[in-house]
Amino acid sequence: MLVGAQLRRLREARGVTREEAGKAIRASHSKISRLELGRTGLKRRDVADLLTLYDVTDDAERATLLSLTEQAGMPGWWQAYGDVVPGWFDAYLGLEQAACVIRSYEVQFVPGLLQTEDYARAVIQLGRRNVTGHEVERRVALRMRRQEILYRPDPPKLWIVIDETALRRLIGGATTMRAQIEHLIRISELPQVTVQIMPFCACGHAGAAGPITILRFPEGELPDVVYLEQLAGALYLDKPAETERYWHVMNRLDIEAEQPGAAATILNRVLKEI
């Protein structure tokens, strides 16, 4: 998706049509469309030919995109969980692993990267009456594996705003929820993690439309991606006009929520009231 988005911007900047790009790699315009949307595999030769067509001559820029092309063809660790990962979520897992900044707002649940095993298990079982125990445990294992990015040598900056509603909802029961709140208190102390709480009293705040996740990547020329999860799918937005709007919403949420220094106090208060 990232390589495709960059190729699209380069093509549009040069005024090249999809038909012309397709001819350059011996393909149709529809393949160019699929390639730019991240819906088909990437061949190094094709990407190199497109970069030449788009007059990309800078060695460093070419090397970055060609390296990403090779990485895109390599299976990620999460693909071993393909039996429990829907196709629309697979792309997000790769983006999450590559991000250097992850900013998110959640209204119903504690975000997946901050969940305990028991809480994750309870969330996964909600609304899934026919799910097998094996599938539940596979999904829990995947969620726990995702959290390893917070402890790697170069962890992403994780900035989370959690609605107080999510903290008051006893997912999995009181014992599970107490353990989850205690985990949030501990993990919010990590230097790479910032947690803010949106209190009940913040009526009509910027996040009223629902959960938002924004991903930013180390390579400055690659676009930010806004991830909006839905019931049976997800939207991935990467056009500047779209992502800038959501950055504005996220910045307002940070202002309207309680400041990071208050998170531990609020979480301890909630813990006592459970």
Protein architecture, described:
The longest helix has 17 residues, at 240-256. The protein folds into 2 domains: 2-72, lambda repressor-like DNA-binding domains (434 Repressor (Amino-terminal Domain), Orthogonal Bundle), CATH 1.10.260.40; 89-116 and 146-273, Endonuclease, Chain A, CATH 3.30.870. A hairpin with a 2-residue loop joins strand 5 (225-230) and strand 6 (233-237). The protein has 274 residues and is an alpha/beta fold. The mean pLDDT is 90. It has a 6-stranded mixed beta sheet, sandwiched between helices. Helix 2 packs across helix 3 and helix 4 (44-53) packs antiparallel against helix 5 (59-72). Helix content is 49%, strand content 13%.
Which strand order spans the largest sheet, edge to edge or round the barrel?
3-2-1-4-5-6
The assigned CATH architecture of the largest domain is 2-Layer Sandwich
Tell me the helix content. Answer: 40-55%
- CATH topology assignment of the largest domain: Endonuclease, Chain A
- For this structure, what is the CATH homologous superfamily of the largest domain? Endonuclease Chain A
* Morphology: elongated
Cα distance, first to last residue? 43 Å
Q: What is Rg?
A: 21 Å
Largest sheet properties: 6 strands, mixed
Total separate domains: 2
Q: What is the chain-wise order of helices and strands?
A: HHHHHHEHHEHHEEEEHH
State which percent range the strand residues make up.
Answer: 5-15%
